[in-house]
Amino acid sequence: MTRTGAGFAFALIFAFLVACQTSTTPVATPTPAPGAEAKPEGGGELVIFSWWTAGGEADGLNELIKFFEAKNPGVKVVNAAVAGGAGTNAKAVLKTRMLGGDAPGTFQVHGGSELLDGWVKPGHMAPITKLFDDNGWRPHFPAQLLDMVSANGEIYAVPSNVHRGNALWYNKAIFDANGLVPPTTIDEWMTMCKTLKDKGITPLSLASRNKWEVLHLFENLLVAAGGADFYKDLFAGKIAWTDERVKKALTILKDLLPYVNDNHATLTWDQASGMVQEGKAAMNVMGDWAKGYFQAHQWVADKDYGAVATPGTVGTFFVVTDTFGMPAKAPNPAATLALLQVIGSVEGQAAFNPKKGSIPARTDVPMDAFDPIARAIAVDFGKDVLVPSAAHGSAVAESFVISLNDQLSVFIQDKDVEKSAAALEAEAKDLGVRAP
Ligand code: GAL
Fold this sequence. Notes:
This protein is of the alpha/beta class. It is 45% helix and 14% strand. The site of beta-D-galactopyranose has 13 residues, from loops. Beta-D-galactopyranose is lined by residues 51-52, 57, 85-87, 110, 163, 269, 289, 320, 322, 392.
């Protein structure tokens, strides 16, 4: 069973967001990459840069490297992963490498603004359109994913996977023991949190050590508070951050805080997922790389744990897509191309995604070998309203993602809704996310 492409509306909205963010400076045209048929005959070294070091994500990467090495025995792959979920530390290291004449062979980057504004627009990437055309790949990737890796008619990266950002993970044993069914609305969720807390169980695990984890939850709450169109308009700069729906999302976040673990400031995302797996918390909101983490800890989908869309977001799908491209100064372009060829292939995506916890970016990868939660997520991807994640680089420029992370980190301390909304609006104006 394979999948078909997903909602067209996302393509339009995404094209709009990209157009808003990329129209001011023309894209530089670096030297075209060598042809798809190029083989790394000289062998040599290939550095693959990412932040996949936690349980599940590291396993997916290793699987990919193993698969590549079997096909390209002459190439020595160097795994240059830098720990820190969502690229917390990796992004700065990558910048130093790229700008300091030490480009890796390829690197993990989110489709959308992070790739297009961050690397393509300043001329740091070479197009790989020929790789797609020579392999006849275009029809096998959803149009909206291709939009997220394209600029000025050229394709710049291969999407390796799609993660669902808005998922609520729950410990089945805790739910069963307390006669709970997964919540679908914010009200149901709050009531359930209170019931669990009254019984001495931590309802929701949260990490905030690297800040982005709070934005990850908050962007889900923006959709819960105002819907998918509101979310897209907000990030397109059409709605003020002082809007009542932003304040409502902040208020929901504030109302959830009494139900989260006290030590969230010391935890990373995988430690918060670990709390659910160890029975120390009932639920956690995280992308489905959490499923990779659970699997790596021998937890079985739909038996030990379940997943539903984050309450209030049913019918909306937060798209988090990791992609890999060709740096304009890649030291061994033939080896990079050979790896991109693997990442974009049916077999490569079938090897990588089950361990990673994601669904394949291609729609023609057989899903039978995937767990039932992945299969359900693939169905939702084909029918839900798709929205680009801000926490994971797609919806808005990195500078504003940093503002959001910083403001939310203040908010979870002082819980001042009016102050945070005003501060976000001011930063959105300063950074050109909204017209001044
Ligand atoms: C996201 C990335 C995922 C996963 C996660 C946690 O930004 O897209 O693949 O790695 O961070 O590290």
